[in-house]
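Now for our specimen.

. . .
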Amino acid sequence: MPKRRWLKRDVVIEQAAALANEAGSVTAVSLATLAQALQIRPPSLYNHVASLEDLHRGLALLGLRQLIVELRQASLGLVGREAILATASAYRRFVHAQPGIYPLTVRAPEPEETEATALSQELVQMLLLMMASLGLQGDDAIHAIRGLRAILHGFTSLETAAAYKIPLDQDESFYRLLNAYLDGLTQ
């Protein structure tokens, strides 16, 4: 196989993300399948990732960065309910566009995972500002964010698992759920 001097960690991570998203699951990506896709020998991957776990950490960081960018773009210039609805829609689009790496973005990072911790805190701060625009502060805002996260993760997980078989518009179900939740928060 020819030498791949162009190969860098970010290229390896991006290729792994493409494979995971194409397959719909990160479990479809092994170091062997990734090496094959990159046209290198598996041992050469260890110049860029220490292990499969390290690859997954890299994928989680990539996913968190992409998610934050998409949520920021969706909510730019919006406040209150409109910001939260736009953010929820962007989150849902992200889950559908990134089915392989999305699950890696869900878990809370360990304290030693400083970059993932910083990205998670950035995401929470963005949501805290949105909750503040609804009049929610402190613990009330954190509880509201947890509820929103549970709604988004639960709905999109069921949706990607094709669990909604009744022929009703899933978009309408999604927005009814969000609006009912937001109505409850603002009463």
